[in-house]
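Fold this sequence, please.
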Amino acid sequence: MLRRRTRFWLSAAIAALVLFASVPAAFPQDNVKVLSLNDAIKQAIKVNAEIKESEFQAEVYRDKQKQADASRFPTINLTAYGSLSPRARLLNGSNGNPESTTNINKPSYDGVFGRADIMLIQPIYTFGKIDSYRKAARHGVKAYEARARLKATDVALQVKEAYWGLLLGRELKGLLEDISDQLNKATDKVQRQLNAGAPNVDEVDLYKLQTYQGELAKYTAMADEGINEAYYGLQLLTNNMSRKIDIKDKYLTPATVSLQDFDSYKKAAMKDRLEFIQLKEGLAAKKYLIEAHYADYFPQVFIAGLYSLAGATNRDHLNNPYITDEFNHAYGGAVVGFKWGMDFGIRKSKVSEARAEYMKLKMKQLYAMGGVPFQVKQAYLQLVEADSEIKSLDDAYTKAKQWVVVSLSNFDLGVGSARDIADSVKAYAKIRADYFKAVFNQRMAIANLDHATGKDAYEIPYTVSKNPMKAVEEMEK
């Protein structure tokens, strides 16, 4: 009997587990998508249209490269047509005698003909024109791939600002709510003591606390506005406008920073910044375009092969080397030749235009070489300042917290005033808020320094798509 009861209760327990596991819909769950910082960056990069634009531009240059590569190979043109044919008969058949019995003044279209011509042209020497176009296209691909990666780092920086901004807003709101609770308790105590006629409080203390409560309400509203803006920005960047999202991190904490000397950051920026890679590849592409246009001054040498075949139902075949019947023949051959044209300024203008484009890009490079070190220096100093501020505010926060505890204790013991509570709480709130802002500034200074040195290009989860059309189609599903 004991065994039967055991089996019964075990079976009942298993059945209950199966039942609860099979009806998860009975327990409603919030449809909230939780994103880590890395997830948010990955999602934002995936849906960003400007990144896709650069990927498609790189695809354009890949196709240009394929066109230039294919220019090395022969081109074949085939033309075929047919129609009614005019009669043409020879006096003695196809013995080479061109005399005919046909009267050309009275044509008779009592037959049909067909004709096919095929021509093959193989370039031999183009004075570097084809090679220059191939190299220009290859560097153009690299330039626009660098541009896509650069845009991805810009998007990642925007996501970091929204992510850390949302966390900052929540920390500040939590702080304000905590301070509000403390002020409410202190206000209630002062009110009770005023009602009881206690000698250590007066109405000025009450008014001061109530004034601080009004200020807290204003700052809470400002925190809510900042939270909403950061949340909306994160939704927009990650393309989650139609669903709720949340962030994985719950607390805004400072990062551990090991600062190097400024020169090492500057050196890394001049080497790894995507702008320099993009400009370098773009300049190479423009240089080869100049050479390609310059090659138009010279002839293009080629081999050509031609074969023509025509036949008609109502015409004799004429075997005469001096006369060709366009309706009835078969011939072919191969030649070596060159093609050369002349114009009055078109080639020169194209070369000048290509040189101007090259110099325009060269000036951008010179400008970047001067501006990038300044940008790195600015981000470096911001990080140094934020890191120093965090350390000093961390010490001040400990003392401010002790001040609040002591002022509350003194007030409860009757040896302290409500004004001391208000002053200590206000100082505590300001220091704590400044601390959170300093942590946010540190996080963004790290992000800006990584961006300024080009380090973030190798850390973000992004690879340039070699088939952007497929990626867009998958994104739209």
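The beta strands are 32-35, 75-85, 111-125, 244-247, 300-312, 329-339. The two ends are 60 Å apart (CA to CA).
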